[in-house]
Design a protein that fits this description.
The protein is globular and about 50 Å long. The protein is α+β, with helices and mostly antiparallel strands. The chain has six helices and twelve strands. An eight-stranded antiparallel sheet has the order 1-2-3-4-7-10-11-12, covered by helices on one side. A two-stranded antiparallel ribbon has the order 5-6. It is about 30% helix and about 25% strand.
């Protein structure tokens, strides 16, 4: 058998894994990926009262007693707060919620582990947070469709590559769920923001920050170092950086 594809529901979304290598033990590698993602969900969920994030937020867990993963995520969120001028804020809603970084980070870690295990050709897609490596077949590149912000079953562009992290944030699925931490108000001027680069956790956070910035996020996206971006405003205008690897 060449390759493997598996889909599971974790973190409230469908997560698909495509392993394109002809290797023994692909089932075991897939098991490990989904076990890791379930662990992240249990640890970081803001909906499960016994998660570390909820216990820390309620003051029932001391930071010193938290897992190394949680401490790492909080440190990285603090860095991202500084990098984005405070627009990426794990406390934007008034309670601890690092979700804007966690899903991308978890997928990035899973992809890094697959690469280290020899599965060099794979695609892991967690509800639009996508990490691709290698090729789906010899001579081909991975093609990542970005959902159209008004048409649920259409794509507005296709990102192409062999080593890419692609993260999209916006208002088209969950409404104005991103809060501008400087005003406390929901941010709705940008309907969709996609960020492409090397690290999926960072791309995920940058996309969330740009949505929080509103129209000011367009200029900020244009100045990003090492990351390309695309955005669609609520009134239908589009922006795309010159280096975005689209088909």
């Amino acid at each position: 058998m060449t390759g493997l594809r598996r889909v599971e529901q974790i973190m409230g979304t469908g997560i698909s894994l495509d392993l394109a290598d002809d290797l023994p033990g692909l089932d075991v590698l897939a098991d490990e990926v989904f076990a890791w993602l379930r662990l992240v969900d249990a640890r970081f969920s803001t909906y499960q009262p016994d998660s570390e994030v909820c216990r820390l937020d309620r003051g029932e867990l001391a930071l010193a007693d938290a897992s190394a993963d949680l401490r790492f995520v909080l440190d990285r969120c603090a860095d991202l707060w500084r990098e984005t001028g405070g627009y990426f804020d794990a406390y934007a809603t008034g309670r601890l919620d690092p979700s804007g970084y966690v899903k991308g980070w978890a997928v990035q870690v899973a992809s890094d582990r697959l690469l280290a295990a020899g599965a060099v050709n794979h695609c892991l897609n967690a509800g639009g947070d996508v990490r691709v490596r290698g090729r789906p077949a010899p001579g081909q590149a991975w093609r990542v469709g970005v959902q159209h912000p008004w048409q649920a079953h259409a794509v507005c562009q296709v990102v192409v590559g062999t080593d890419l992290a692609v993260a999209t944030s916006g208002t088209y699925e969950r409404g104005t769920h991103v809060v501008d931490p400087h005003t406390g108000e929901p941010a709705g001027a940008l309907r969709s923001v996609t960020v492409v680069g090397a690290d999926l956790g960072t791309a995920d956070a940058y996309a969330t920050a740009a949505v929080a910035m509103g129209l000011g996020g367009l200029g900020w996206l244009a100045r990003l170092d090492g990351y390309e971006a695309a955005a669609v405003t609520e009134d239908g205008r589009s922006f795309r950086s010159d280096g975005l690897p689209v088909a």
